[in-house]
Amino acid sequence: MRKGLxxxxxxxxxxxxxxxxxTLVRVDAFAAAGSAAPPATAEPSMKPAGANLRIIRDLxxxxxxxxxxxxxxxxxxxxxGPLPLIIWVHGGGWRSGSKExxxxxxxxxxxxxxxxxxNYRLSQEAVFPAQIQDVKAAVRWLRANSSTYGLDPDRFGxxxxxxxxxxxxxxxxxxxxxxxDRGGGNYNQSSRVQAVVDFYGPTDFLQINSMPEAGSFRQRxxxxxxxxxxxxxxxxxxxxxxxxxxxxxxxxxxxxPPFLIVHGQQDRTVPYQQxxxxxxxxxxxxxxxxLVILPEAQHGGPAFSDPQLLEQIAGFFDRHLRPDQP
Length: 326
Prior knowledge:
- Helix content is 24%, strand content 19%.
- It is of the alpha/beta class and 326 residues long.
- The protein has a single domain (12-321), classed as Rossmann fold, CATH 3.40.50.1820.
- Helix 3 (130-144) packs across helix 5.
- The chain starts with 11 loop residues before the first helix and ends in a 5-residue tail after the last helix.
């Protein structure tokens, strides 16, 4: 299905309509019945980066305006057949961060996945839609080179946090939006993914200022110096069309991939209601979606690396990218 720049109207009633299907989940609720739950601050049982791991760094996936866009590829030491891939997209308010530390996603390498951690142009280098164009260029490059690196081009997932959560959510919903598939080459390849995990990404810039928690932002999204304004090239109220075009909720349609969305209820950077609205829109469209609200969590922090939550994420990717596995 080819998508245009249309709006999905999310009425305030929608926030109420699906309330009964959203669970406020404390971290210890992820423990299996009858098993002891670790403390909420527990770190995942990660193996050291690079231990029994193949790492290919600084692969150029595109060159845009003279700038090489790079990714790192993490591969299991002894892959069994073409590997499902998880593309990690870093956060940092679209103006900082890098591909260098995909810590959460690395656990998936030890479960038989490849992980690609990508850089993209930051907002001081180029404004929207450069960021999503870069992410899609990376997906196309990875598909074009899947045989070289032993990847399964039909089993690509995406995972990101904060600004990265926004970009993977937009990647998931904007399949077929021609504007976002410009730049970077490999246009004979699809930029769609088959599963998305969104950690506390903003999803509807047109509604973010009206949300209950927006008043406690350190910098309101409408401020000229806010991360959102720098992304768009100006305050939201002066760039309504662009704010709609940058919102993942704009493009929700029934052919979107499954989503797992996780947000902290105490988030004072991106209100958790952003994820509620997005979840509601996905469900109304008939898209498989799961929303996990962590009541005590803020914008990131140890709750998001809890082993039980990571196990739920691994199960989500397994169901959608390795359905043939027992």
